[in-house]
Amino acid sequence: MKTNPLVALGQAGQSPWLDYIHRGMIASGELARRIAEDGIKGVTSNPTIFEKAVATGHDYDAQVAALAKEGAPLPAAYTRIVTDDIRAAADVLRTVYDATKGDDGYVSLEVDPDLARDTKATIARVRELFDAVGRPNVMIKIPGTKEGLPAVEESIAAGIPVNVTLIFSVRRYEEVAEAYIRGLERLLAGGGDPRKVASVASFFVSRVDTAVDPLLLSTVERWPGSPKAETALSLIGTLAVANARLAYGRFREIFSSPRWNALALLGARVQRPLWASTGTKNPKYSDVKYVEELIGPDTVNTMPPQTMDAFRDHGAVADVLSGAEAEAKAVLEDYALMETGIEEVCARLEEEGVKSFLDSYRKLLAAIERRLKAASAG
Q: Residue ranges per domain, the chain?
């Protein structure tokens, strides 16, 4: 019998996580089935996923009716709805958490997106959400913005597992890793146990190609037949993976340094790169492109259900990350010859990502508010 490619990912050192959550999926046993059959080792959520879950179907009717009856204010209703789902998913994943001794088995919950530029408020909300869920295998998602970096450090120092999200550039990834290490050093200085803290750095992938490919095509149109146009053509569909592979190279360097080794001797866990935004948006590309081209040890790939199903059906597993830094660097060096630098693109993607999650968060609140009013009206 053919080995399930998703299970094979785990055997190759990459943890497959599901980028989706819905109350019905948990209650029906689908999540437990995916864990058993596909080797799923974690779940991620974001405001867009929750907005789609809550706005449709009837899985939330009973809770919304109860919240309306007690007159729960909107912010409290939101927190209770999402933390109930996260808690339930964490309970299903607890067997994975225990079996891997805390390496996997996490479910991620994002800090309210309207706090993305407010360090102090983010720190307070991280603690509030972690305590509200009340499970050791929850990771609180903090955006990897400049304002989010001190919150990452502070939360790790407090012993709270963190998923740093919305990372696009290698430079920002380095800052995230530094914040994690500083947090662990502070945790140790305060008498804490680093073995009880885990973190992932969510590096967004496909959105880079979505942003860069049109820029490359415009270069081809402006200088047809030129060497610059030929270079641009050769780069289409390559930047996202090359960018991620460079980040992986830096991960290997940072987490093998003497500074890190001193922490590792005390039980500290590496902050694994997590490949996010791995659904293929360009129909011309393989539907498993951002999984197959980013497989390697000590990584996570969080996939939307359709990408996970596609990879189960026809995914191929091989370590393509180890030793790929030189080729990836050459791709980025070629792109440096274009009009728009990769850091500029990544900065714009960060801004767009923050705005997108904020828009989804506001839609989610509006959907909850509508349902509360409808329930109150009978």
A: 5-205+237-319+346-376
pLDDT for 270: 98
Q: How many Å apart are CA 284 and CA 291, to the nearest integer?
A: 16
Q: Which among 2, 69, 141, 373 is annotated as catalytic?
A: 141
Structure tokens at 74: 């909107």
Q: Name residue, tokens 């047809």.
A: 224
Query: Do 273 and 199 meet the contact criterion of CB atoms below 8 Å apart?
Result: no
141 classed as catalytic: yes
User: What is the predicted pLDDT for the residue at 1?
Assistant: 66
Q: What is the pTM of this model?
A: 0.96
Burial 1-23 (b: 16+ CB within 10 A, else e): eeebbbbbbbebebbbbbbbbbb
Q: Which residues contact 55 (CB under 8 A, 6 or more apart)?
A: 363, 364, 367
Residue of 329, 352, 322 lying closest to 252 (CA atoms): 322
Distance CA 74, CA 289 (A): 40
E strand segments, the chain: 14-19, 42-44, 106-110, 138-143, 162-167, 199-204, 272-276, 299-303
3-state secondary structure of 293: coil
Q: Please name which of 195, 136, 183 lies closest in space to residue 158, comparing C-alpha atoms.
A: 183
CATH class of 5-205+237-319+346-376: alpha beta
Separation of alpha carbons 250 and 325, rounded Å = 9
How far apart, in whole angstroms, are the C-alpha atoms of residue 229 and residue 240? 19
Identity of the amino acid at 139:
M
For residue 301, give the DSSP letter: E
Helices (H), 145-257: 148-157, 170-189, 206-222, 227-235, 239-254
Extract the residue ranges of the chain whose pLDDT is less than 70. 1
- Cβ neighbors of 257 (< 8 A, separation 6 or more) are none
